[in-house]
Design goal:
Layout lengths: L15 E2 H6 L4 H4 L4 E3 L4 E4 L6 H10 L5 E2 L1 H7 L13 E6 L10 E6 L6 E4 L2 E4 L1 H8 L5 H12 L4 H4 L8 H10 L6 H10 L7 H12 L7 E4 L9 E4 L1
Parallel strand pairs: 5-6
Antiparallel strand pairs: 1-3, 2-3, 4-5, 7-8, 9-10
């Protein structure tokens, strides 16, 4: 039995769209070979290959002109964090209001109003940037999670671990974002969360501990307290 012609190297291990295969000269007959599986409309993948969230999101966005990864999927890919009951399947894709909603197996489609600067790129994937992801998810997250995700936006990153030196957002920028979307579902919850967000909570548990202390009517703790405030290399406590 004749073996199928090898695929181009860039298509060997990853799911790919029919657009990508055509651009590389792969014929329709080759796409029907038994070493490839149908990954859904306009998508092919190596037979038996289990693909992760990043690969699924990337190929689904590529197969859906005008769409970008958003909501829960964007939060997972950018490590903003989600409650344990969220995440995984399906992939969330958004389109502008003027385009039809994405309708595809394994996808939750959204039609949204966006303004310039709210969509970017992550590892070659068009995606909602973290501040917009936070605002999108404010409609479906409990308030304490909206606060905790907001703390992740405004915290000071650690360049040696994260490869960035600036926060994802500042509170004034988030206030502007809220003002630009006055009729968006969840915007009031985002506004409430913004008042409770603090720079210095480096994880969801740190935020939840701070909120629990406030609920117990204890004084609000300081965050990232240095043992020696005059020494930038001094050890710090998460709160105190």
């Amino acid at each position: 039995m004749a073996r199928p012609t090898p695929l181009p190297d860039t298509l060997q291990q990853l799911p790919f769209t029919v657009y990508e295969s055509r651009a590389l000269g792969v014929t329709e007959k080759r796409l029907r070979a038994k070493d490839l599986a149908d990954g859904g409309r306009l998508i092919y993948l190596p037979q038996g290959r289990v693909i992760d969230l990043r690969d699924r999101a990337k190929v689904l966005a590529a197969a859906t002109p005008g769409a970008w990864v958003s909501h829960q999927t964007a939060a997972e890919l950018t490590s903003l964090g989600l409650p344990p009951w969220m995440g995984g399947d399906p992939v969330h894709l958004s389109k502008p209001h003027e385009l039809p909603r994405v309708r595809r197996s394994g996808v939750v489609g959204h039609r949204v109003h966006v303004i310039p600067g709210e969509i970017g790129e992550f590892d070659g994937i068009p995606i909602s940037l973290p501040p917009r992801t936070w605002l999108d998810l404010a409609a479906v997250l409990p308030l304490n999670y909206v606060i905790a995700m907001g703390d992740q936006l405004i915290r000071i990153p650690r360049p040696q671990f994260e490869g960035r030196t600036e926060p994802y957002a500042y509170k004034e920028g988030l206030r502007l974002l809220i003002r630009q979307h006055p009729n968006m579902k969840g915007v009031e919850k985002a506004r409430l969360a913004l008042d409770e967000m603090r720079v210095g909570a480096d994880s969801y548990p740190e935020t939840f501990l701070r909120l629990a202390m406030l609920d117990a009517h204890l004084p609000e703790p300081e965050l990232q307290v240095r043992l020696d405030p005059s020494n930038p290399w001094s050890p710090t406590a998460d709160l105190g």
